[in-house]
Amino acid sequence: MSLLTVGTVAFDAIETPFGKTDKIVGGAGTYIAWSASYFSKRVNLVSVIGDDFDMNELDLLRARGVDTEGIDIKAGKKSFFWSGKYHLDMNTRDTLITDLNVLMEFDPQIPESYKDSDILMLGNIDPALQIKVIGQMPKRPKLIVMDTMNFWMTDPFIDNLKKVIGMVDVLAVNDAEARQLSNEYSLVKAAAKIMAMGPKYLIIKKGEHGALLFHEKNVFFAPALPLEEVFDPTGAGDTFAGGFCGYLDKTRDISYENMKRAIIYGSAMASFCVEKFGTQRLKELSHKNIENRVREFIDLVQFDIEIAE
Amino acid sequence: MSLLTVGTVAFDAIETPFGKTDKIVGGAGTYIAWSASYFSKRVNLVSVIGDDFDMNELDLLRARGVDTEGIDIKAGKKSFFWSGKYHLDMNTRDTLITDLNVLMEFDPQIPESYKDSDILMLGNIDPALQIKVIGQMPKRPKLIVMDTMNFWMTDPFIDNLKKVIGMVDVLAVNDAEARQLSNEYSLVKAAAKIMAMGPKYLIIKKGEHGALLFHEKNVFFAPALPLEEVFDPTGAGDTFAGGFCGYLDKTRDISYENMKRAIIYGSAMASFCVEKFGTQRLKELSHKNIENRVREFIDLVQFDIEIAE
After folding, report:
1. How many structural domains does chain B have?
2. pTM confidence score
3. What is this model's ipTM?
4. How far does B41 lie from chain A, in Å, by closest CA?
């Protein structure tokens, strides 16, 4: 199968209690593509960059089977730049700089060769653009997954956000966003309200506290791996999404049972992402590393209790 | 086998976003005994109360196989009373009143008939008293489990706390307490430091985010059940401990593998506890209820991933 993702490819400058970086490569599309590339044979990436971007980074992605035809390179323009500083607990951060640059004029165009992609992963961008992307697919993908953020949950974006939420199969948000979107504190109640907006599946990401997958009356919980240190949380959610979609694409199975496995693989990929700055750790993984990490997740949560029927 | 627990039997007055109570029965010893009574054939309870206590509550405990010979009833004195108010997120609370009353003169005496108890569960009390209890056991119990709290992690209590921590097999604390005790933010690092103080097993309770069990290089994670509402979190940690110890006692198996199961049973009991005020929900459970709840935990976390060796 094949995976189409739309998301930012950008520069980040990150400061954590462990250090700080100059401009390094980031963006949701970048993390999703790197992570998915360990599973999907073909990842189709749609994004926009300026000609200040480090084009070697695109070569690295292409070497991993990521098609970059869908990346619009704007001559004489600057790439999207975000800078942030994490607090000591690593769960909260301050945004220092947001230079939208080319993102201001992002008008995603899906190349012809991408249009038969089986899974569509919409990274966190303006919901108006997410709608536009879905509209360009001549045939509905087998599965549409979307990420978003609190910024789009207020006027004037909320109407478009609700519209696109009504068009997708899987929505992935964090716990604070689920609460804001539903106006419910209980995540169980929040999930019911959000699924009533359209998505058959809802993933609520809780960072170091793991992730929940809701579907109808079912709920599945995947922990985050307890790590000695979280070095840099940037991109962990996108890496999770990339692993999740990539695994579903590779296994050609979009059932609830397989989504559980996909969430474990996504969590494993995210656990690597936070070990180093930016995409660095994602660039050096082997399939053996990933298998061993997934085995750690199995050891972490598996127990055998037999209950007589 | 049999379980000996030492802990407060007291009055609480609780306010949550869902309502408030007059004086109701609470205390760590009460919750531990109620919870363990669904597993242990015999729960031996050591505590202290005033003669203002509702003695019908002791009848209810005795009807569940809890031996109350070890409860010292002080004539003309008042029982320990705690009053607290939970914030909207239910994870934080303000203490409104702490009337120590009989707790000021608590001098635990272990009845002869309790002295061959197999498992000793030390509820959260002054570590000097926890040491005194261990000292009264002519033969070391097969397993000693202890709870404590941040209050004892400062002078002049910290030395005794470290001493008793060095005497037990299993320590149960919450995440904030683990960080305070170890001076490490990472729970993995905190666990290593705390186990170096003596306990072979460390349980870190994370409330709505579940619980971790550390042992040597192993870590097991049990989620909390996602609930529609948490009505009253009071006693959840003690109920967890009671279920944990009760299950180990019932199954006569204190291995790491069985502790994983015990943590799931403890978590199941805690998930009931928070559904109503005080001990109310714990008083009305059936074994069928508990089995069904444990099955929900299985559904919540179990997945099947096969990794080739």
Report:
1. 1
2. 0.94
3. 0.91
4. 20
